[in-house]
Amino acid sequence: QKEVEQNSGPLSVPEGAIASLNCTYSDRVSQSFFWYRQYSGKSPELIMSIYSNGDKEDGRFTAQLNKASQYVSLLIRDSQPSDSATYLCAVNVGDYGGSQGNLIFGKGTKLSVKP
Amino acid sequence: DVKVTQSSRYLVKRTGEKVFLECVQDMDHENMFWYRQDPGLGLRLIYFSYDVKMKEKGDIPEGYSVSREKKERFSLILESASTNQTSMYLCASRPRDRVVNTIYFGEGSWLTVV
Q: Which of A75, A108, B78, B98 has the fewest beta carbons under 10 Å from its own?
């Protein structure tokens, strides 16, 4: 059974601090990794995708991938109260006859940014 | 922008009723998915489809069926609704593109079975 693990939190950080969210996965052949943000009562929205080892930056967000360690993380710099949400890590697994497999989601880490 | 539309946002159904959840995407995506999301259990895949009239079971297909007669539309069917199917249902789509393979979600359908 392929799995994606995240700490459920809640992770609480003060406004302006760096929030660090972590995720490990079990499928060694996975090539695509995603971070989604989900506000309460809303559907998940994509904030970052990463496909290669190393760091990928987009504004205040940095995704980090280490395939050897099967580890992916998300850093949020200058955290704002509006960043308070649940962050879902997703990993692409499998490949069915030319399709692209499926995303397996972690259960999410709840982030709270205190003013 | 990608648009995934779930026609029913909030539904209340009785035990034993047949329930249809409809999903339409406007980006010509080949792949479509149905997930359910429950507190403490996260997002779980019910069914997916990678082409018209094609379907594959996900992790929790029991009690559900799907229909994909047209590329843009993917329907989830609860043959006989039960209270343990009370949940938030999320439809999603993604292109068959090995470079950009992001999955996009609809706004969700909240189903309560009483």
A: B98
Nearest to B42 among A49, A97, A106 (CB): A106
Within 10 angstroms of residue A40's Cβ, the number of other Cβ atoms is 8
Q: What's at B33, amino acid-wise?
A: F
The string of pLDDT tens digits covering residues A29-55 is: 888 899 999 999 999 999 999 989 999
Angle at A22 between CA A18 and CA A27, to 5 degrees: 155
Q: Touching check for B5 and chain A: CB below 8 Å?
A: no
- Does residue B38 sit at the A interface (CB-CB below 8 Å)? no
The 10 Å Cβ neighbour count of residue B14 is: 9
Report the pLDDT value the prediction gives residue B34, as an integer from 0 to 100: 96
Beta-carbon separation of B105 and A49 below 8 A = no
- How crowded is residue B7: how many other Cβ atoms within 10 Å of its Cβ? 13
Contact criterion met (CB below 8 Å) for A94 and A101: yes
Question: Which position has the token pair 């995240």?
Answer: A6
Q: Which two tokens stand for residue A46?
A: 């994509």
Q: pLDDT at residue A96 above 70?
A: no
Residue A6 contacts residue A89 (beta carbons within 8 Å):
yes
The rounded distance, in Å, linking the Cα atoms of B2 and B26 is 7
The confidence band for A100, taking pLDDT boundaries of 50, 70 and 90, is low
Task: Measure CA B106 to chain center.
Answer: 9
